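In response to a reviewer's request, we include the raw inputs and outputs for one of the modeled complexes. The two entities were modeled together in a single run.
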Amino acid sequence: MKVAYWPGCVSRGFTPELHGSMAKVAPLLDIELVELDRACCTGAGVLAEHNQELADTLNARTFALAQDVEGADLMMNICSTCQGAQSECQERLDANTEYREHVNETLAPEGLSYRRGIVNKHFLWLMVEEIGLDAISAKVTRPLSGLRVGPFYGCYIVRPTERLGISEEQPRDRYLHRLIDALGGTVVDYAGVYKCCGFPIITMNKEASLKQAGRHMGDAIDAQADCVVTPCPLCHLNLDLQQPLAAKYSGRSLGMPVLHLPQLVGLALGLEPKELGLKRHVVKPTSVIDWSTSVVASAAA
Amino acid sequence: MAEFTLKIRRYTPETGEAAYWQEYKVDLDGKRSVLDGILQAKDREDGSIGIRCSCRAAICGSCGVRINGRPALACHTHLDEAAKTAMGAGWNPPDQGQQTPAITVEPMGNFPVVKDLIVDMDAVHWKKIQRVTPWLIPAGEPPEREYIVPPESMIDVTQSMACIQCGACVSDCLSMEVDPLFIGPAALAKAYRFVGDPRDGKRYERLKDLSEDHHGIYDCTHCFNCIEACPKGVAPMSQIMRLRRIAGDDEQIVDRNNGHRHEMAFVKNIERNGLLHEADLLPDSYGGKFHPRAVPELLDSLPVVLRALQRGKVTPGKALRHSHKAPQDVKRIFKHVHDKTERYELNLYVTGYEDEEEAAGGGEGVPSSSPPERSPNV
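The model returned the following structure tokens for the whole complex.
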């Protein structure tokens, strides 16, 4: 399937291993990525806080660029925060014709116009809804047997439920659980699954921010997870990059490996930890790398 | 009639004993409320169950509890709905599905428990409400007759006025979980009710106070939990964002928590680069690389940055330059919107959603959509 691909900023900045691993995994799932290289940052909620019309116009521009990608089935992103920020703008743009036309006037000089009702899905949603978990299971060559994985969704992809289309028929707040299960791993349910990583207030209240990150990683350790997986690179910044400092603020030693979603999928599809950029993490994912080699060793035996 | 199992968290602090769970079978129609269930258990099995309630119609805000781990009004939650969410709570691999699990009912979070399901609203909620001076302070002498205000400015504050003070948002506030001093969603939504009121004469002072407080508007972590928790659609987080917008952009309050600086650093970063350049964002949020405030903060972050460089996670070149292909188009939009004198905000709580027919161009005789609300706070 062909998708208009919005990689976000952080996946090309401070978490380059996310963008890299997505590029490696996509062909294995027959996803053709057409990168929206003229689109700009979604604003991550901060632009909307500053000026709603500005955030809505910039995201309408991204949607319009995606709608112009010939033959694309839909738009795909790889960041919970992008998904949430874009869904918020889309909700307003789709709800009111006069407002949408007003925003489109600003886009007109560029020859762009947003048409109501774009389908924009995070890679997680796309896997479950467009490819299907059975099809993904069938592609698994290295099942995550014995690997205990804690899901960490990120706020923007689970709340508010109505805006994000989460319902009994479409339980998007369970997809990460289901995916880990479909890849052969063991789901570890712990207190932090749906909580906030604290990243948005890192520059305003570092203590409160990192206490959140530290608490959730501590809870995952107490629940005996081998690693945590997140569909959000901003969460990854606080949970992985800042984890040593979070340990200091939360007063306990941590050391919980945090994987990006495509990295976990890639491992199950047979890719090597190194090509998925696992060595680039601040918290060395030793448990995961050891697990991957032990699986290979036992397969040979 | 159907049978439901309620698993209620019991706790009496004076006894010195730990809290424990107790199960009760109730026999009620599925469309009756969880509160009806609790009251039946209290009536038939155990009169000592502590629950606070009054109106039983989602008006008084007394019976806030956590049902299956999520905040709700007990009187506003059907038993059959609760049984359904109990089924989905916790992870069970699909092949080992649960048998009709019990509906768990426990006291709200972030509050001390007085007894069982009753929490101490005075110790947390009402103290925080008082913190924001929750009354009107008009400027100058009162007029001889009533105050005249434009209707749209009152519509603007109706969303925050819909609050019934149940504490559900406070219960689930993730910032408060780690920082109990955070003023919190309910009180800050209440603060907007007065900041947004054109009769109030202390707008600047209120905003200055809430911005400078280390546990004020910039302590909200933007997790949407309060929006999800509120049974009345108040969307406290959205009100907090409006407080930030008015404080920083209209009143030009540069707070000591770096809140407004961070917002502006972010906005300028995107305007300049099209994409977010994290390497600049951090120092700029503290006032720039050479700002006295930035130095200790950056030194504190230094080990983190060095470790990232060492792992090859970030290369200096990549972190500083991921160039954008259409910087001029992005800059043009920034300039176009920033040059406007009036801010254009669409509040869906006020305007509602168009139906499909209207969106498709309007059916015959269908009136066009209501005009978007223009914020009076410009």
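As requested, we also summarize the result in words. Residues 121-250 of chain B form a domain with the Fumarate Reductase Iron-sulfur Protein; Chain B, domain 2 fold (CATH 1.10.1060.10). Residues 294-310 of chain B form the longest helix (17 residues).
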